[in-house]
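TA notes, week 10

Several of you asked for a full example with nothing omitted. So below is the full record: C-alpha cells for the whole chain, then the designed sequence directly under it. When grading your own attempts, check the secondary structure regions first.
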C-alpha cells in the first residue's frame, strides 16, 4: 500500500515547502512575485521566453509517420515502443510537450496585471509568440477553467487575484498545413492544458476525495478527484464550463473534418494532465462515434478510482503517462491498493504484495473512505537521477515540465536509461535564473 494523503498550502515558498502538495506549476511561476519585485520586469519576461527546444541536442526530425500514425497514438497501447523508446514516438511526445509549454508562456501570471489569469496573446499569434512558429497548427478555441468553490463574503475585500474564479487554462489547435497533415498521416486536433496557477486552482487541488462523475448510474460508478471535476464542470453566469467549451468545439470540428482521418490528442502537465484525462473520458462518452482519442500527460497526479480506469479502457481511450520517479506529485492524491493494475504490477511489485495481504473487509473499508485511486493508461517511467546533467533535485524541479522534456529527450531504455548525446543546452538560462533568484539558484539546470 502507498499512502499520500496530505497537501501543502498554496503559494508556499519552495525553500520552506514540505512534500505534501497535489500539483505544482513550474518553480519560476511559484516564485514569480519575489523574482519580479527583486529584478526589472523585462528580465522576468525574457526568462519566460526560453523555448523548450533548448532541451534537444539535435534539430527536430521531420519523419513521415504515414500508416503507422495510429501506433504512435496508442492503438496498440504503445507495445514495443516504450522500452527502448522509439525515436519517432520520442519526437511526438516532445512535440506535444511543446504545445503545453506554449500554454504556460501565454498565461499572464502577474497578479498586479489587469489581465491576470488571461491569455497574453490572440489565437492568431499565440503559437508564434510562444516560440512555436512552424507547427502547421492553427488555434481555434481558447479554453477557461472555473472553480466551483463558494467563497466567503470577506473575500470581497481581498485582492482580486485571490478570488479569480475563471482563468485561461489552454487552447484547441487544429493541424491545417497540408504538408504536416501528410507527414502525420491524418489531421490532428490538439487540446493543451497548463498546470496550476491561481489560488482557487490550488484550493481545488486540496479537494482530493473522490466524487462520482455526472450521470454515473451503476453501483460501481466511476469516481474522480473532486477538485479536478469541479474545475472541469463548474460555470458562472459569465463563463461556460470547461466541459461545455470543449464539447462545443469538438462538435464543430467533427462536423468540419469528420470525414477525414482524424486524431484528437489531449496533452497537459500537472493539473493539466488530470484535466486532459477527464476531457478524454468526456469526449469518448459524449460523441459516438468519436475519433481516436489519445492523452499524453506529463507529471500528472492520480485522477480516479478503479471503475474510472476500467471505463477509460472500455471506451478505447489511450493514455500515455510520462512519470518522473522522483516527482512526488505523481504519487498523490490518496493511495493505491489496486492489485489488478498492470502498471503497478510491472513497476512496483510491492504494491500487489501489500494489497494481497490485506483482508478483504479492510480493503472494503478503505475503499469506502473515497481515497482509493487507480493509475490509468500506459506508463513511461523516467528518473531525474538517470540524467548525468541533473546534479541535484528538489520537489519543484523534479516536477517541472522542462525537466520532463529533458528526460524524454535523453531516455533510451530501462537498461540504458540515458543517452550521452542528450545534453541540456541551458547555461544562459541558468545564469539568468541565478541573477533573478539571487542566492536561491536552480541547481537542476546543467551546463
Amino acid at each position: 500500500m502507498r499512502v499520500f494523503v496530505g497537501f501543502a498550502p498554496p503559494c508556499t515558498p519552495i525553500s520552506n515547502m514540505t512534500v505534501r502538495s497535489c500539483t505544482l506549476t513550474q518553480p519560476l511561476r511559484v516564485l514569480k512575485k519575489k523574482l519580479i519585485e527583486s529584478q526589472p520586469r523585462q528580465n522576468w519576461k525574457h526568462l519566460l521566453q526560453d523555448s523548450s527546444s533548448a532541451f534537444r541536442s539535435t534539430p527536430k526530425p521531420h519523419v513521415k509517420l504515414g500508416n503507422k500514425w495510429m501506433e504512435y497514438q496508442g492503438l496498440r497501447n504503445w507495445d514495443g515502443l516504450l522500452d527502448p523508446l522509439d525515436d519517432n514516438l520520442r519526437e511526438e511526445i516532445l512535440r506535444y510537450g511543446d504545445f503545453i509549454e506554449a500554454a504556460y508562456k501565454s498565461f499572464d501570471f502577474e497578479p498586479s496585471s489587469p489581465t491576470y489569469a488571461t491569455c497574453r496573446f490572440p489565437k492568431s499569434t499565440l503559437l508564434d509568440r510562444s516560440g512555436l512558429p512552424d507547427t502547421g497548427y492553427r488555434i481555434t478555441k481558447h479554453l477557461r477553467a472555473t472553480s466551483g468553490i463558494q467563497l466567503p463574503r470577506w473575500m470581497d475585500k481581498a485582492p482580486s487575484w485571490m478570488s479569480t474564479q475563471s482563468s485561461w487554462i489552454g487552447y484547441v489547435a487544429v493541424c491545417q498545413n497540408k504538408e504536416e497533415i501528410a507527414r502525420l498521416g491524418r489531421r490532428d486536433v490538439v487540446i493543451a492544458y497548463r498546470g496550476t496557477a491561481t489560488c482557487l486552482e490550488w484550493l481545488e487541488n486540496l479537494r482530493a476525495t473522490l466524487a462520482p462523475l455526472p450521470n454515473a448510474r451503476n453501483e460501481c460508478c466511476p469516481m474522480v478527484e473532486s477538485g479536478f471535476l469541479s474545475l472541469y464542470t463548474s460555470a458562472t453566469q459569465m463563463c461556460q464550463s470547461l466541459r461545455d467549451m470543449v464539447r462545443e468545439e469538438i462538435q464543430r470540428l467533427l462536423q468540419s473534418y469528420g470525414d477525414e482521418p482524424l486524431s484528437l490528442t489531449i496533452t497537459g502537465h500537472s493539473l493539466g494532465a488530470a484535466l486532459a484525462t477527464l476531457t478524454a473520458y468526456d469526449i469518448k462518452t459524449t460523441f459516438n462515434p468519436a475519433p481516436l482519442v489519445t492523452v499524453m500527460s506529463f507529471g500528472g497526479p492520480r485522477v480516479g478510482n478503479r471503475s474510472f480506469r476500467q471505463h477509460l479502457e472500455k471506451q478505447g481511450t489511450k493514455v500515455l503517462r510520462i512519470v518522473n520517479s522522483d516527482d512526488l506529485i505523481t504519487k498523490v492524491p490518496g493511495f493505491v491498493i489496486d492489485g489488478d493494475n498492470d502498471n503497478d504490477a510491472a513497476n512496483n511489485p510491492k504494491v500487489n504484495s501489500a494489497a494481497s495481504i490485506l483482508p478483504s473487509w479492510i480493503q472494503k473499508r478503505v475503499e469506502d473512505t473515497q481515497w482509493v485511486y487507480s493509475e490509468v493508461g500506459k506508463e513511461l517511467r523516467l528518473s531525474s537521477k538517470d540524467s548525468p546533467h541533473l546534479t541535484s533535485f528538489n520537489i519543484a524541479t523534479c516536477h517541472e515540465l522542462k525537466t520532463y522534456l529533458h528526460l524524454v529527450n535523453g531516455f533510451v531504455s530501462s537498461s540504458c536509461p540515458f543517452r550521452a548525446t542528450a545534453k541540456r543546452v541551458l547555461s544562459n538560462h541558468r545564469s539568468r535564473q541565478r541573477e533573478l533568484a539571487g542566492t536561491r539558484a536552480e541547481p537542476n539546470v546543467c551546463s
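The first strand starts at residue 2 and ends at 3. Use that as a sanity check on your answer.
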